[in-house]
Amino acid sequence: MNCIKCNMPLENVYVCPHCGHVDKVAKKIIYSSNWHYNQGLAKAKVRDLSGAVTSLSQSLKYNKRNTDARNLLGLIYYQMGEIVAALSEWVISVHFQERNNIAADYIQAIQNNPAKLKAANKVIQKYNLALSYMQENNADLAIIELKRVVNMSPTYIRAYQLLGLLYMQRKQYAAARKVLMRAVKVDRNNMTTLRYLKEVNRLHGKPEKNQHGRKEEFMQINDPNPIVIEEGSGQNYADYNTGFLSFINILIGIVIGAAVIWLLIVPSITKTKASEYNQAVVEYSARFPSAIRILTICRIRLPILRAS
Questions:
Q1: How far from 69 is each of 24, 61, 93, 209, CA to CA, in Å?
Q2: pLDDT tier, 130 (very low <50, low <70, confident <90, very high otherwise)
Q3: Rounded CA gap, 298 and 45, in Å?
């Protein structure tokens, strides 16, 4: 972009270094690019690598000279196992900013490690070989090659996804879930990985997990006849007096206590009186034959006494 006043190039700035003119359009573009860069940086910190790639790519659409966004995008590609894509971004970054650019150090570090370059090249070859085996419907050899790929490059997300897809095709759902969960640890919000994992959970019949890693043990049930409370309907609601409720509760407790006393103590008193009454009846019954015998003797002797 060039200055509209003096036609001097504006390289990643919105204030012309020649005439001092402030280009409002360039300012808005640079601010938008920086905002998306900050979003990508925040997502990368929580291992949302796919979201970070999206935000950083959007930042570069606004300003292709944003070397900070391009360098970070290369680092994320490198973390995802895409070494070729990472080198491409760093080379472009050095092209736009040759001096004081950390991308040159990244490139130099990889060039000084030939074993790393050789291993990356071998990973790509084996991944392509697995793709060719899949096109030939030879899933066994493809799985073997993909296992070698993930052992050589533990953060290569595409290899995890393809390996999980092959396990799903062979109905080895436990192995597929294990592989896909490794991919989730690298990139927690990769849409392809999450879609495969959801399909595995559906086919294998296990509950899905939420963002915090916990299983969803409860199912939300929609009531076909929900209770709707209309606001402003003119109905007034008042809380009960808590003191009055306390008095009522105490009164109810007293009544219940009296009932318990009546049911437990009164029957025992009645039983005691009944036993005393029975004892008296027994004593009177024991004395009653003697009284009858005396009365009989008196009746026999009464005529004799009258005659005498």
A1: 22, 11, 9, 32
A2: very high
A3: 125
| 38, 71 contact by CB (below 8 A) | no
Domain boundary assignment for the chain? 24-112, 117-204, 249-308
Which fold, 117-204?
1.25.40
Whether the CB-CB separation of 65 and 11 falls below 8 Å is answered with: yes
Average pLDDT over residues 226-241: 43
| Closest-CA residue to 201 (of 225, 184, 221, 223) | 184
pTM metric for this prediction: 0.60
pLDDT tens profile 235-281: 444 444 556 667 777 888 888 888 777 777 767 777 776 677 667 65
What was the pLDDT predicted at 81? 86
CA separation for the pair 188, 198 (Å, rounded):
14
| Neighbouring residues of 163: CB distance < 8 A, sequence distance ≥ 6 | 143, 146, 147, 150, 179
Q: Are domains 24-112 and 117-204 of this chain identical in fold?
A: yes
- Non-local CB neighbours of 300 within 8 Å, separated by 6+ positions: none
For the segment 17-32, what is each residue's pLDDT rounded down to a tens digit? 556 656 677 778 888 8
Instruction: Tell which CATH classification among 3.40.50.300, 3.40.50.2300, 1.25.40.10, 2.10.220.10 matches the domain 24-112.
Output: 1.25.40.10
Q: How far apart are alpha carbons 277 and 70 in whole angstroms?
A: 109
Q: Cα separation of 265 and 39, whole Å?
A: 79
Structural tokens at position 112: 């000084």
Q: CA–CA separation, 23 vs 11, rounded Å?
A: 12
Local structure of 179: helix, strand or coil: helix
Top pLDDT among 19 and 160 is at: 160
Range 2-10 contact pairs with CB under 8 angstroms and sequence separation of 24 or more: none
N-terminal to C-terminal alpha carbon distance within the chain: 167
